[in-house]
Write a structure and sequence with these properties.
- By secondary structure, the protein is an alpha/beta fold.
- It has 12 helices and 5 strands.
- The protein has a 5-stranded parallel beta sheet with strand order 2-1-3-4-5, with helices on both faces.
- The longest helix has 15 residues, at about 190-205.
């Protein structure tokens, strides 16, 4: 009877967490940290994206902590594919990098929050609770960068109107987080053709990166 009661408590109160991190020492440390919380249960941890994608559907985590920089497939692409497999899973990106491209590419791929790896343990645990409640956890540094980027993004309707229909199609696909190959397949254009149209988009919007172009498109 006592065993039955204990199992019921675990399945109704424990949050299932998975971790994808290639640094073995850091991964073990994080698993140990998370398991100190009585309401968290680490159901799996992986050293690379490929292992995670092959196994995670079976583990069914509610929250996934994802490193951005992984050995082969990076964390951003892993999130994009993971969301197709487990659309209900919440993903928190963990990284030592706070650059704008990593931030926005992760969000476009479907990440629900973005934290630096030096985030204090109590904040990490609170972020898991926050993301399960529908929030989007961000460290103060990341939130400040996001605000700064949006402040720099001015309405560019006139510039967008200068784009050709095909350039608009390509830009829309970029905003959806698709890679060049995926855009090529969807629109029936060669990769060289995609790059040609993207150069046109950059020139007309006066930007220098995918992230800047997408921000201007979303801020229209």
């Amino acid at each position: 009877m006592m065993v039955t009661c204990r199992l019921w408590i675990m399945t109704t109160t424990n949050v299932r967490v998975a971790l994808v991190e290639d640094d073995n020492d850091l991964r073990r440390s994080m698993v140990s940290l998370l398991e100190r919380s009585s309401w968290l249960r680490v159901v799996a941890d992986y050293a690379d994206a490929e292992s995670a994608l092959a196994d995670m559907a079976r583990r069914k985590p509610e929250v996934v902590l994802m490193d951005v920089k992984l050995p082969k497939m990076d964390g951003v692409e892993c999130v994009r594919q993971l969301k197709a497999i487990l659309p209900g899973a919440h993903v928190l990106m963990l990284t030592v990098h706070d650059d704008n491209d990593s931030l926005f590419n992760s969000i476009l791929a479907g990440a629900d929050g973005y934290l630096l790896k030096d985030t204090v343990p109590s904040r990490l645990v609170a972020a898991i609770q926050e993301v399960r409640s529908g929030g989007s956890p961000l460290t103060p540094q990341i939130a400040r960068r996001m605000v700064q980027c949006f402040r720099k993004t001015e309405p560019v309707r006139a510039n967008l109107e200068n784009l050709t229909p095909r350039e608009l199609e390509v830009l829309e696909q970029l905003a959806l987080g698709n890679r060049y190959k995926e855009i090529s397949d969807k629109l029936g254009i060669s990769l060289d053709g995609i790059r040609f149209h993207i150069r046109g988009v950059y020139n007309k919007l006066h930007v220098h990166s995918r992230t800047e172009a997408v921000l201007k498109y979303l801020g229209r």
